[in-house]
Sequence to fold (228 residues):
Amino acid sequence: MYIPIRVSSKPKVIGVKNGISQIEFDRNSFLKLKGKFYEFYNLFNSYTIFENQNLAFNFNNSDVLTGKKLKNATITDIMGFSPKIMSIPFIISEKFYNVIKDFNIGNHILFEVDIIDERDKYFLFFKKYITDKELYFPKSKFFSGDNFSGDYKSFVFSNYIDYKNYLEINPLIQIESIALKNTIIKEDLIFFQSSFEVFFSNELLNKLNDNNITGMEVFNGIDLIFVD
Fold:
């Protein structure tokens, strides 16, 4: 069983009311960084990364990125940040990483982050994604709109090509139920191209909760199923 998780947007958890981020990087400094991280940013902040993820694991990074805590923000073990990097959903604490590294989390990379006035270690965390092409489309469900406004519509596509063609017409469609073939390797932590949420195995989530990991929020809007 997998549970969809996102960075908490609750002010009582993250301290800020923007619902987005606790840590901010200076955008100009961010873009002007030399070395491996600069190259990484250019690659990982574009859709190119989903087409050739193996490029990520050729990086041997030595840069440390400096960020600052937003006013009133609370430091947690998993945090949102700005400006966004498309394929990196959050910053994690060393405490968080020390828990998940004992599980099957697949290929991943850590980029060290120095948060001003914080002693503990933090990292930008990337792991290999399951791309849209790998979804089992006949059993995956998508939607647009919402019930509140009365324009909710549900979609099922026969294959990736049909999905991609429709996405060009309506780029605002979102995924509601993810289906994968049973043959795919089942890791304890799964990133999907089509989902803002990250999926944790029940065992991993329980371990994180046992270790009082902060900043996580369960999102009940997406299902993950495996089919024969």
The chain is about 20% helix and 30% strand.
